[in-house]
What we know:
By secondary structure, this protein is mainly α.
Amino acid sequence: MNKTYIMLLVFVSTAIIISLLLPRQHTIKFSYSQGEEWAHDDLVADFSFPIQKSKLEYNQDIEAAKERFTPIYIMATEVSEGVKNMFAQYLSTYDYQMSSSDMLNEFKSSANNLIDSIYGAGVIINYNLDTVDISKSGFIRVVENGELATMSLKHIYTLDEARAVFESWLNGYMSAKEVGDIHEYFTANIIYDEVLNNTEMSDMLATVSSTKGFIPAGSQIIKSGNVVTASTLQVIDSYKQEYALRNGDTYSFTLLLGNFVYVFIILAISYIFLSCFRKEFSKSMSNVLFILFIYILMVAMSYGVSKFDNLNLYIIPYIIVPFYVVTFYDIRMSIFEYIAVLFLCAPFSAAPVEFLFVNLFTGLAGIFIMQNSYYRQKLFVAVGGMLLIYNLSFISISFMNEPNISAMKWGTLIWFPLNIIIFLALYQLVYLLEKIFGFVTDITLFELCDTNHFLLRELAEKAPGTFQHSVQVANLAEAAAKEIGANPLYARTGALYHDIGKTENPQYFIENSTSEFSLHDKLEPLESAQIIKRHITDGVMLAYRHNLPSALTDFITGHHAKSLIYYFYHQHVSKIIANGEQVDEAEIQKHFRYDGPSPVSKEATICMMADSVEAASRSLKEYTSEAISDLVDSVIDVQLSEGSFEDSLLSYAEIMKVKSVLKSKIETIYHVRIEYPDRK
Length: 680
């Protein structure tokens, strides 16, 4: 399938995903607040709806219901029999001086009757009184033999009271020593049932209404120009809530279609922007996938936060988007993509204009501070600036919307420091994104430019001539890239590594030769050409082995494009002619051309130009301004004629600027001086 069609398919798929994540509720979006005049048309109820209580009112009703709740206990009827049996067992251990057996039986009977009386009234543990707080009502409900009855606490013994009554009676028959610890036999027979109470409490609270009135259809809610009072505000909010429920979270065809068209327009403009103004990015699938990944990530975060009433969208650091994009691309693209993300996420906000205003200006402030800065401490300056802009922009737009300072939502300001903390955490993912999508940051380029890097150190040791050539090419490429507004650091780094493949066979390249003898003298021209070409594949293998970014591999494969290896090609053709054979130039050139591809990025193209010019300049017999100018023109004209610039993003005007820089720098390298007049 054509690459363009694949990208379009990816864009459409992304549009579908994002449109499904967007809010699926039809809502009435009015801008209003208590104390302001109603700036819209008369609001009339299209349907009947209940007035919702405020959270405070509802919570007060819940607390009142809890206070009215009478706890439930279970009457354990078998407890009294157990106490009587234990008491009888206790008596059997003592020999009491009773005048007759009838008196002893009467004593036991009286004890049992007292126990039955006490437990008939009920015995409850003191601890339960503190646990369920039944002191206010003075009543409990008791389940006895399957029947529920309400009992007054006045007629129920606490465990301490029951023991005291029984011991007081015993003291009429026994000494205190004989009574002993008889009270330990007493236990409660009215037991608190936590499960039953929780169930009853839940059922009761479920009956507490969340509404406090009713508005019939056709009623006027508020008239245009009237002040929004507290009671009117509650009615309007209830109307909006009922409207959302009636037209709510459903897959309405019109709603989904509207979401899709909205998202598709934003993504289509993004695609057109990339195709027209950032061709180098639109040609790479990883670049496109990265942008779409950012879109989906921020929309998904907005979707998640919108599901929690206690969270605010301002906790999401949308400002991370321009920082990600400017890290891998440029400031112009970062601004465009940031605006696109904000418009994609704005539908999640109840106040889209405020949302766009606050986030847009904060993000712009951040990237303006950070632009063209390679120093990490600048990040903290940007963070401080963004936190300040967050607060100022929110306060300013609140002053515009609210009637007085007291009406402002000051609590919103707490989300901005949290936003910044999350931003700093997400900023650390730059390295991970760099590896996933094959990008190269300026920090990585700085590290790779270090000549102590293993590959560059090995190039300097094994192929010192090639190393010096690479350094010169890097200087030329950096200057040229800076002149046309390309990335000079990227151009320099790519140029340093473009010839690393020559470390495999350094002696076959003339810049590394230390004698007049050449190894190519013993080889056929075709063999020599294959060895020369091999430094491209060797370079790619070294780059892969040492985990160089794929962006630098483009410099290795593209710095010769599909140019002809002239020296050995002419040797080969000369031999054929000398042997009287027919020369098929098209067929022969296939074996003496580099495999390409032609460079695409501006930086890789500049490296190709600088490489050829620097190598050719070493063969000049005299270094005059005219000779150098002619050399640069001829080398680049040959590249133009061979089609080496066909895929390049360099414009003709930029090529001319690069030629001018190369001429100036070559003159500086070889110290070209003006010719002074004779003093005679």
